[in-house]
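Ligand: threonylcarbamoyladenylate. Inputs:
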Amino acid sequence: MPENISRTADNISIADAAQLLREGRLVAFPTETVYGLGADASNVEAVKGIFRAKGRPADHPLIVHIPESAKLSDWAENIPEVAYILAEHFWPGPLAMILPKKTTVPLEVTGGQNTVALRIPNHPIALKLLQAFGGGIAAPSANRYCRISPTTAQHVLEELGNAVDLILDGGACSVGVESTIIDLTSSPPRLLRPGHISYQELEAVLQSPVAVPEILSGTPSIDPGSPRAPGMMALHYAPETKTWLCSSETIGIIAKQLQLSNQHLGLLRYRTLIPDSPNITQLTLPEQPDTYAQGLYAALRQLDELQLDILLIERPPLIEAWRAVNDRLNKAATLIE
Ligand code: TXA
Ligand code: MG
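Predicted complex:
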């Protein structure tokens, strides 16, 4: 098998991909959220390869992707009934659940913790790959540590290049931000990372409350005291360009001031019209949170590549519907008020 082949996923390449996983190699694949960097979750050496390729610290746990909920018990123990209820409603889909791990699950996968994150992704290529492979595929987002998650195969190539053995190309991801994570080991269950599935949807299915951080806090979505928490780094999904998050009211004024000092600006807007000028490159995202989320990472990447002096992002409303987007923006940018 040649190194670093990138091909579209027909049946042959899915079989090849599953075989590569069996050989302990790294296969990037599309999911509905973002692209994942996959390895055989039961192969410790392969899992270590993920951390090497990403430059990710060993104590940051991975999500194990499984082909069907019947396999939950291969990875987790003392599984509460609510896990099956959530699986029934939301899988395959953009929800990861934290459960007590089985002793057989390598600590390398869980970053040394006694819990494991599990999910069935809703993407035909991911599902075919999981079925062909049969086991669990550990897969973080297929980006280098602290960089923006990839939502196309091209992004994966730009991020990881030769560090990945195969990239399955499934086009652009439909959700565009990482899965919702719910911790079922705490009581009440706790939202660790907001995503396409809102906590109200989870509560509606569970018919009981889910603990969530204050929406207006502007702080990361999780308990900053816990080393296991996702995205606890202040700038976790950050472009390399200096990036500021500005309100709709101030973004025009700030843009004007920066232009006066001859700075080249990138601007990510969704609502406020900013006059065009030779020093400004503007991108516009939709005013609707789901379609905004879909385009967010590609837009950030596009602006980041222009090597501008500064990127300004127009901050969406601090309301529930925008929780996942605001969470990612808080981690990508410095808030300017
Ligand atoms: O949408 C997604 O979830 C994508 C696709 C590829 O499935 N994956 C993804 O993986 O976003 P990653 O590694 O970039 O983010 C997973 C997050 C990490 O921030 C990690 O801290 C958290 O899940 N996590 C994993 N296992 C955990 C555990 N046992 N307890 C708490 N958090 C955990
Ligand atoms: Mg990630």
